[in-house]
Amino acid sequence: MNFVRDVAHSLERTLGISSADDLDLRRTDVAAVSHALGELGRLQSELSRSAPSVDASDVQKARFTATWTLAHSADARHNTRAIQMLESNGRGEAESVERRAERWRDDFGEAATDRDLHYLRAVAHYNGRDYEKARAAAFDALRCDPECRQAADVREAAEEALARDGLVAAGAIAAVGLAVIGAAAATSKR
Fold this sequence. Notes:
It is a single chain. 75% of the residues lie in helices and 0% in strands. The chain is mainly α. It has one domain: Serine Threonine Protein Phosphatase 5, Tetratricopeptide repeat (Alpha Horseshoe). It comes from Ostreococcus tauri. One of its GO terms (cellular component) is mitochondrial outer membrane. This is Fis1, C-terminal tetratricopeptide repeat.
């Protein structure tokens, strides 16, 4: 499937078909990601030392900012890290929607709504080119807020990408089939 995605992305670049830029997804650079992660680490360290100038809400806000910058990065490793921050329960187990919402309240507090966090999952999956999971996460965001235009745009773009990947896969399979038939015909003439 990675081969098919690579072919699809080559065609996207060649033909100028939709990308994250077309969705008006803001992109963060490595410096922004480094700064956000550094700030999160600093605040977590100060909180663990019981520094009076830092409380849990500061860490929660920094965690949200770090997750946002990772999800909006063009680097697939950053997208993966954002997904891990949003989806990992620390034990590698699947968790219920209720348990995830509870964990998000612990991790992010009032810094973000469930809609925001589902939307960030959708963005991270979309930027990581996992369109099925992006679509599912966008649907989760739309369940929280049916009027969320950004989530609707990501869902629509993910559906278009899935359809495009399906067409490219069908074309690749047809090309391989024609090549096999051509080779068989050439061999049978000898």
